[in-house]
Design goal:
The chain has 58 residues and is of the alpha+beta class. The chain contains one helix and three strands. A three-stranded antiparallel beta sheet has the order 1-2-3, covered by helices on one side.
């Protein structure tokens, strides 16, 4: 099993601990992404981590 698949299962089991940093809605795991009800999406990296930081305005 790949690290990304192991991480996806871990995020699925603990999805209640995470909130969308943009709208503060709960997230759920859909395939290899964390997605909130307003369709903000955060993809899992190959090594299993996810960035939940907002992009810097430049």
């Amino acid at each position: 099993m790949k690290k990304i698949d192991i991480a996806a299962e871990l995020y699925q089991k603990n999805a209640g601990l995470f909130r969308c940093p943009i709208c503060l809605e709960a997230v759920e795991v859909i395939e290899r992404s964390l997605v909130c009800s307003k369709q903000h999406s955060f993809d899992l990296a190959k090594k299993g981590y996810v960035h939940l930081l907002k992009k810097a305005n430049g």
